[in-house]
Design a protein that fits this description.
The protein has a two-stranded antiparallel sheet. It has 238 residues and is mainly alpha-helical. It has helices spanning 3-28, 53-74, 79-110, 118-140, 154-159, 162-187, 192-237; strands at 35-40, 46-51. The protein is flat, with a radius of gyration of 23 Å. β1 and β2 form a beta hairpin. The N and C termini lie far apart (56 Å). The longest helix is centred in the C-terminal third of the chain and has 46 residues, at 192-237.
Length: 238
């Protein structure tokens, strides 16, 4: 097993686990009433009633902690240091998984359940799309090949930085996914459709113009290369 495979696998896992942790907290809000059991004593008795959004905050904090740790060590060049940091990040995610599951079990056991409605299920379905977008945004960052053009565009591909294009699309997927997840979790009604399509339009437009700008830059590079070749051939002919 080569070093590159180990590093890439650990990096992807260290980014995916916190995202799944956030998704668990996100989806749990759809099955609980607005007021939930938010704090417990040593005997698991409820000591405070809180708002449902506290689960979202908990999930987001538990998402950020290992993600920040993984982001730091993902850019380290030393193999042993990088692997150590990523393994620690994965360990932190697993510990937070256990803590989160324990909290959710106690919360569900001591809280009222939400009433089922068509708006709730629409919001839940849209939040799944949002969560999938966030998950895809992390994975796409580690794709190091052309996903958008065929081989016949090899001249353009040679000069276009597809890593930058993947970053642009990853940012779009992340911002779109987070806004949809939070919006649907808060609204839990048919108004979630407005959040979904507004987010898709706004962040999609930003992503589109960013890619167009990058494509124009790549096209200019190709044109300059072509002019240089033409000038060289003309000089040789003289």
């Amino acid at each position: 097993m080569n070093k590159d495979y180990i590093q890439k696998t650990l990096t992807i896992v260290s980014f995916v686990l916190p995202t799944i942790l956030f998704g668990i907290c996100l989806f749990s809000t759809f099955f609980l009433a607005d007021n939930i059991a938010a704090h417990f004593d040593s005997n698991n008795n409820v000591t405070r009633v809180g708002e449902q959004y506290e689960l979202l905050i908990l999930g987001f904090v538990y998402y950020l902690l290992p993600i920040v740790f993984a982001s730091i060590f993902a850019h380290v060049n030393t193999f042993s240091t990088k692997v150590f940091g990523l393994v620690v990040s994965i360990f932190i995610s697993l510990v937070l998984f256990g803590v989160t599951i324990n909290i959710l079990v106690l919360t569900f056991a001591n809280s009222a359940k939400s009433s089922v409605s068509s708006g709730l299920w629409v919001s839940f379905a849209l939040s799944i799309i949002g969560f999938a977008s966030v998950l895809a945004s992390h994975i796409l960052l580690f794709v190091r090949k052309n996903l958008f053009f065929r081989k016949r565009h090899s001249i353009f591909i040679k000069h276009c930085n597809f890593n930058k294009m993947n970053v642009i699309i990853s940012v779009f997927l992340f911002m779109f996914g987070i806004s949809v997840c939070i919006g649907c979790s808060v609204l839990k009604s048919l108004y979630s459709l407005i959040v979904f399509f507004t987010s898709l339009f706004v962040f999609g437009a930003i992503c589109f113009f960013a890619i167009i700008k990058l494509a124009k830059k790549c096209t200019r590079i190709v044109e300059l290369q072509g002019k240089e070749k033409c000038n060289v051939s003309c000089d040789c002919g003289d």
